[in-house]
Amino acid sequence: xxxxxxxxxxxxxxxxxxxxxxxxxxxxxxxxxxxxxxxxxxxxxxxxxxxxxxxxxxxxxxxxxxxxxxxxxxxxxxxxxxxxxxxxxxxxxxxxxxxxxxxxxxxxxxxxxxxxxxxxxxxxxxxxxxxxxxxxxxxxxxxxxxxxxxxxxxxxxxxxxxxxxxxxxxxxxxxxxxxxxxxxxxxxxxxxxxxxxxxxxxxxxxxxxxxxxxxxxxxxxxxxxxxxxxxxxxxxxxxxxxxxxxxxxxxxxxxxxxxxxxxxxxxxxxxxxxxxxxxxxxxxxxxxxxxxxxxxxxxxxxxxxxxxxxxxxxxxxxxxxxxxxxxxxxxxxxxxxxxxxxxxxxxxxxxxxxxxxxxxxxxxxxxxxxxxxxxxxxxxxxxxxxxxxx
Length: 390
Description:
Layout: E1 5-8, H1 27-38, E2 45-48, H2 55-58, H3 64-75, H4 97-117, E3 122-125, H5 146-156, E4 162-166, H6 173-178, E5 185-192, E6 216-221, H7 227-245, E7 249-253, H8 271-288, E8 294-297, H9 308-319, H10 332-342, H11 370-382
Parallel strand pairs: 1-2, 1-3, 3-8, 4-5, 4-7, 5-6, 7-8
Helix pairs in contact: 1-9, 1-10, 4-5, 7-8, 7-11, 8-9
């Protein structure tokens, strides 16, 4: 395999724009790529612009009638059919919506293809991670479900075991739904509890069905969970599952909306803890996925200046084996770009000043602690189905 990671990027992905005032501001993508360049990471990776996903690729996950509805709304937004989740407050229709959504999906699919072929060991598409789209409907700012499409393409190419780990603050419901009965795909989602956050799914009892029973794992975290609890939950669940499953490819989704500054959710995770989980996913790929195959995607994240660009720049650096020092001072050129685009002042360093730490699950748990109750519920529901001790 190539020693250089691939970074999937086409400037046109910033056309994924639901309009003024919508939380999914595409400036977050432009600023992330600007920060990647400011740190010189674009020279440490192969920057690749892939073609949009075509009709046959989209239909690996999405229904034909839904793709037709997206195309129609893309050509005439006023005719968007809300029965397909289009033209809603979450997913307003806009001209060119199909084209740019297919472009983002195409980047994730091409990333998966490159990793499977051995063109590269790691591939990143931070514009992707749109994990809420369903086979027949848009949802939660997501039109086409690029993580599910990337996984479906891997299966089409012959993969027999693909693991998907989603650490976005919202449940990875669309990816789970796509592979609910498929034992070839292990989906693991850590997210804020469905009682307090969209999409109100991702309960620990959701474990898959039929041949896929035990292939879905959900950790529903209490609102307010911070670094120590988030990291404890991740390490109490994910490494053991990945080591047991031995995926041929690890696909991860790194929504930055777990951050304490994010305006749409209620976790209290720092940039430094997000970076720690990225490093752990990288290590898990090298330890358990064949040849270290890793596809890393973006996702949610609505603190579009202070958080998202720093978080995903760390992701690119880790995938490139050229990690950015958390204490690094952010180049003035990028902060100038931030001000020019947003009239906001950008952050000065690549850290929130935290030193992430957590207590391992093996050291014991507190049955009165809400975080530990959440982890215990997940292990009890899912682990025995995989032949693991709860």
